[in-house]
Amino acid sequence: MIIAKIFNNNAIIASDSNKSEFVVMGRGIAFKKKVGELVDQSLVEKIFVLQQKEASEKFKLLLEDVPPEYISLCYDIIEYGKNMLDAPLSDYIYVTLTDHMNHALKLFDEGIKATNPLIWEIRRVYPKEFGIGKKSLEFIEDSLGKKLPEDEAANIALHLINAQLDQSSRRIDNVSVQTEKINDILNIVTYSYGQAPDENSISYERFVTHLRFFFQRLERPRRGELDDDFLLKQVKSKYRKAYKCMLQVETYLQTELPDEEKLYLTLHIHRVTRESAP
Predict the structure, then answer these.
(1) What domain range is 226 assigned to?
(2) Nearest 5 degrees, angle CA 118-CA 122-CA 123?
(3) In this structure, are 56 and 164 located in the same domain?
(4) How many domains are there within the chain?
(5) Are residues 123 and 94 in the same domain?
């Protein structure tokens, strides 16, 4: 690899024999170096390979303003998140999370405490992502000596949630709205049954996962109804309380759900409440 552009002593853009470009970081990797010279491979610590061109270009712009240690730290957080979630993440998270953390750390240095009003909902609806966020705060404190508030764990979780969704253009504020709706649905189930679902159960995790993709499906063009509504009729008859609860959810959403969604939502409500029953 040869040096194509130098941002500072620790960050460069390098290109290979195929003229593919990468962001490369390493302590002193560009010290006393010039564009066109070979990259010292022994100094390479991190290589950013972003497949999405728009994300790659925006990430390069961040390198002009964001301290290298922040970029490196966000890289570690994202890689940790990938491993813990065992799920692919959109390349945009390298841009969005890095930009957010740069801003959050500036506010911290200025003594301004940023809050996240959805922290409780995020902790409840996305416990895995919130846990990664809390661990990330430990990384930040160990690396920078800055103890950020727990609200930032929720903010990091939101970026991880956003990056798992199927649309790179989806905005964090839309995910926040979705989180509130999922929390409201869980409350409807709690009030309908007089008992909260067991948040540590497999059924709870599956229910929340179903709801996450349920909202994505609602935004897409409607599919046809079930070819045979026999199964829905059976479920309606057998699990009357769960079906009634599903109808309350439908009323809350102010939309008529397709039969297929009614079927699976009823089944999930039945399972999550059955597992929580004393």
Answers:
(1) 174-276
(2) 120
(3) yes
(4) 3
(5) yes
* Rounded Cα distance, 182 and 122, in Å: 10
30 and 89 share one domain: no
Q: How many other C-beta atoms are found inside a 10 Å radius of the C-beta of residue 49?
A: 10
Whole-structure pTM value: 0.73
Instruction: Please name the residue ranges forming H helices in 145-223.
Output: 151-164, 172-193, 202-219
Distances (CA, A) of 220 to 179, 213, 216, 223, 265: 18, 11, 7, 9, 18
Copy the structure tokens of residue 245: 């609860």
- Kindly state the helix (H) or strand (E) to which residue 54 belongs, with its residue range: helix 53-62
C-alpha 252/C-alpha 209 separation (Å) is 19
Per-residue pLDDT tens digits for 63-121: 888 888 898 899 899 999 999 998 888 888 988 899 999 999 999 999 988 888 889 99
**Do residues 15 and 99 share a domain?**
no
